[in-house]
């Protein structure tokens, strides 16, 4: 199969909306987030998002329905329910929604507001992701979080009261000075709330962050691996399926939006610093775009080509790595048809890399046309991904 044979309708479509402001920048965060100084220009920013969406759709009509929408940040819960409603109304006027569309909004317990939560639900948001990170006061302080454990529990209850029946909690482990007992205590605290989904991330000291400049004392690799293994066992016993590197869900409640990323689907991206991947043009090329990161620059240029800071069309020889570094994060991996329908390249393009991965014990023997990482492949992901470069 070549790119010109790729049926566009077979590639799912999502939308990512970036809301860049936070109450305070966390020292570990390398996302495009900016500490709010004064009142957030909510109306002006929503106007820019709508112009940006119109521009994104102006070069080619889009007949595919949206499978998911994700409001990320920054801290989207700094925005009012009315503002989120304006965005969703504008999107619905320009794009079809799948009947079972998943619409997620990230919330910080430190900015939780019951009226806003009700407003998000009334606007059509049907899934919320609450950034807890830890329930322990010392660890929350070390991470620069603006909320307490009790505030996290109240935010969760607030979301339930607002009508949300699909809730994710974000947690981190291998925190500064954290023990395994403390890491598992955070998981027990999360499980007590009975969420539908848990994201449990290993804290990493990312470049260009405060933690990178002044590294805290964090658990060594062996201790962190022990924490991870014990936590995975605890979550499995609680009925959560470990379906992606850092994602755990009750049956049928995996994050559809993130699954679309990992399965190399298409996604529009609007907002300051938002990234997009789109299969477009008569030759059905795969293009990646990124918007200007600074909110003011973004708002001034949204709706024009100047808002796009980076644009790159993927070369044919990049497709194996681009696809596999996403799909092999999934415990179930992928099947040949998914690779071909998402990339337009023949499955045979992966043969040399898969043969090497099999020799190294990083993928399971191919009983069918499925490619699944082994336990070693999941543990040493970077080694596995490098084979596809």
TrEMBL record:
Its main location: cytoplasm. It comes from the Bacteria. SMART domains: Elp3. It is found in: Cytoplasm. Its cofactor is [4Fe-4S] cluster. Residues 7-241 form the Radical SAM core domain. Keywords: 4Fe-4S, Chaperone, Cytoplasm, Heme, Iron, Iron-sulfur, Metal-binding, S-adenosyl-L-methionine. GO terms for cellular component: cytoplasm. The keyword Transport does not apply. InterPro entries: Aldolase_TIM, Coproporphyrinogen-III_oxidase, Elp3/MiaA/NifB-like_rSAM, HemN_C, HemW-like, rSAM, rSAM_sf. It holds the Pfam family HemN_C. One of its GO terms (molecular function) is metal ion binding. GO terms for biological process: porphyrin-containing compound biosynthetic process. The keyword 4Fe-4S applies. Belongs to the anaerobic coproporphyrinogen-III oxidase family. HemW subfamily. Probably acts as a heme chaperone, transferring heme to an unknown acceptor. Binds one molecule of heme per monomer, possibly covalently. Binds 1 [4Fe-4S] cluster. The cluster is coordinated with 3 cysteines and an exchangeable S-adenosyl-L-methionine. This is Heme chaperone HemW. It comes from Panacagrimonas perspica.
């Amino acid at each position: 199969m070549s790119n010109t044979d790729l049926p566009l309708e077979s590639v799912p479509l999502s939308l990512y909306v970036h809301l860049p402001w936070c109450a305070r920048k966390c020292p570990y965060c390398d996302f495009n987030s900016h500490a709010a100084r004064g009142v957030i220009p909510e109306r002006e920013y929503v106007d820019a998002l709508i112009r940006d969406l119109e521009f994104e759709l102006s070069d080619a009509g889009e007949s595919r329905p949206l499978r998911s929408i994700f409001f990320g940040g920054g801290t989207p819960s700094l925005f009012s329910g009315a503002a989120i409603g304006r965005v969703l109304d504008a999107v619905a006027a320009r794009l079809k929604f799948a009947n079972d569309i998943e619409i997620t909004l990230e919330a910080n317990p430190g900015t939780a507001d019951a009226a806003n939560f009700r407003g998000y639900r009334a606007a059509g948001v049907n899934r919320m992701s609450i950034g807890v990170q830890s329930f322990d006061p010392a660890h929350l302080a070390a991470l620069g979080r603006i909320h307490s454990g009790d505030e996290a529990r109240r935010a969760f209850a607030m979301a339930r009261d607002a009508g949300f029946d699909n809730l994710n909690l974000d947690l981190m482990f291998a925190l500064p000075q954290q023990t395994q007992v403390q890491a598992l205590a955070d998981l027990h605290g999360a499980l007590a709330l009975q969420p539908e989904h848990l994201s449990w991330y290993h804290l990493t000291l990312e470049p260009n962050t405060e933690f990178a400049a002044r590294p805290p004392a964090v658990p060594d690799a062996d201790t962190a691996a022990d924490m991870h293994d014990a936590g995975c066992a605890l979550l499995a016993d609680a009925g959560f399926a470990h379906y992606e590197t850092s994602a755990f869900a009750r049956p049928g409640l995996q994050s559809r939006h993130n699954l679309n990323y990992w399965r190399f689907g298409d996604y529009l991206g609007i907002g300051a610093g938002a990234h997009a991947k789109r299969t477009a043009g008569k030759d059905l090329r795969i293009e990646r775009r990124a918007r200007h990161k600074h909110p003011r620059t973004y708002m001034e240029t949204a709706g024009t080509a100047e808002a796009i800071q980076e644009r790159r069309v993927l070369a044919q020889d990049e497709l194996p790595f681009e696809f596999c570094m996403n799909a092999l994060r999934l415990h179930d991996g992928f099947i040949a048809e998914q690779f071909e329908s998402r990339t337009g390249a023949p499955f045979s393009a992966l043969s040399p890399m898969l043969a090497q991965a099999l020799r190294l014990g990083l993928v399971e023997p191919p009983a069918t046309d499925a490619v699944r990482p082994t336990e070693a492949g999941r543990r040493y992901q970077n080694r596995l991904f490098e084979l596809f470069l």
